[in-house]
Specification:
mainly beta; Porin
Length: 349
């Protein structure tokens, strides 16, 4: 019954509008070609961004360090009217578990017809608003704990059907993926099916949902993940939030998002965040974020964590910004000195 429901959900997606979707680490590409939206020329673009960062952790004893959050280079373009390509490497020693440069995204997209497109290769799992947001466009320096822990692996190999852009009311993506992450062969004969859809209900409100059903280790133990999202905006004010629920088996070898340390999870786990921003002007944007994560819903208080992030983004120009975040970690029991101050400079090209 569950398989039939997922199939119908995917079929409904396929019958709706379609243009493009940012499945790599970039925003939607600028449209090319005629008014029909069909690409008409070949192209090639070299791009990338650096995120040097200074972190202070108010532990006992305290620690501080300079590092690169991300240091990425990529190329994207077209070979003809029917096919485009995208590839990106990560060079930061602080992201890869072994400290080596590695290939993050590499996919080919058939996009001759605007109503439906297909990508094959390695790319982000199409799950959740925060994970699918371009890494250089994140409002806070770190993604929420629930996004890093439950949408893992965040990147994988597979085939995706997608459509819609940030300019359309509706957008969707549905992918068939290995479920093991980058650089690893599939460990069973079954594949994960993952999808996300969002719809702009009103000018000030966008709603979305995500799902994942797969077999992270063996073909006998499954995993189900569900997510909901909302974005509200009014003039300079914006509020967004997500809730993610996950149950079943999971791959303990899969890394958390962007170098985060994966946690031991119970059979059922969930978390959420809500984030508010206000653009005081075109350069200065204060931000407040509250989040919680429960790594085992069956065990009370153990494995439960909350965090508040207070900070600001300062945009020097469209390609350069400074982010400052203070992370206040809230304990339900004995208080622990573990707050942190993160400061990051970003330059993209």
């Amino acid at each position: 019954m569950r398989t039939k429901i997922i199939f119908l959900f995917a079929l409904v997606f396929a019958l709706n509008f379609n243009t493009s979707f940012a499945q790599g680490c970039e925003d939607d590409a600028a449209p090319t070609g005629a008014s029909s939206g069909v690409p008409s020329t070949s192209s090639s673009t070299f791009f990338g961004y650096f995120q040097p960062e200074y972190d202070t952790h108010f532990t006992d004893p305290s620690t501080n360090t300079f590092k690169f959050k991300r240091a990425r280079f990529g190329v994207r373009g077209r070979v003809n009217r029917s096919f485009s390509y995208y590839a990106m490497i990560e060079t930061s020693d602080f992201i890869a578990s072994d400290g080596n440069v590695y290939l993050m995204d590499a996919f080919v997209t058939f996009d001759k017809y605007e109503w439906t497109k297909f990508s094959v290769g390695s790319f982000k799992q199409p799950f959740g608003l925060e994970v699918t947001t371009a890494c250089h466009s994140l409002t806070t320096i770190d993604r929420s704990i629930v996004s890093d822990q439950l949408v893992a692996p965040q990147r994988d190999l597979g085939l995706m059907m997608l459509g819609g852009t940030s300019k359309t009311k509706f957008r969707y993506s549905v992918a068939l993926m290995n479920g093991t992450g980058l650089g690893l062969k599939d460990n069973n004969t079954k594949k994960d099916i993952i999808g996300r859809a969002s719809y702009k209900v009103f000018d000030f409100m966008t709603l979305g949902g995500s799902f994942r059903y797969g077999y992270p280790n063996t073909k006998d133990k499954d995993r189900t993940t569900l997510g909901g999202e909302v974005v509200l905006s009014y003039n300079a004010f914006k509020l967004q939030g997500e809730y993610i629920y996950d149950e079943g088996d999971y791959n303990r070898a899969a890394e958390g998002g962007c170098g985060s340390v994966p946690l031991e999870l119970g059979d059922k786990r969930a978390g959420a965040y809500v984030m508010a921003t206000y653009d005081l002007n075109e350069k200065f944007q204060p931000v407040f974020k509250y989040e919680y994560f429960d790594q085992d819903l069956d065990i009370k208080k153990i494995g439960y964590q909350e965090m508040m992030t207070i900070g600001a983004n300062y945009f020097i120009n469209k390609n350069t910004r400074i982010q400052v975040n203070y992370q206040n970690k809230i304990e339900t029991g004995l208080s622990v000195d573990n707050d942190a101050l993160l400061m990051q400079l970003q330059v993209k090209f």
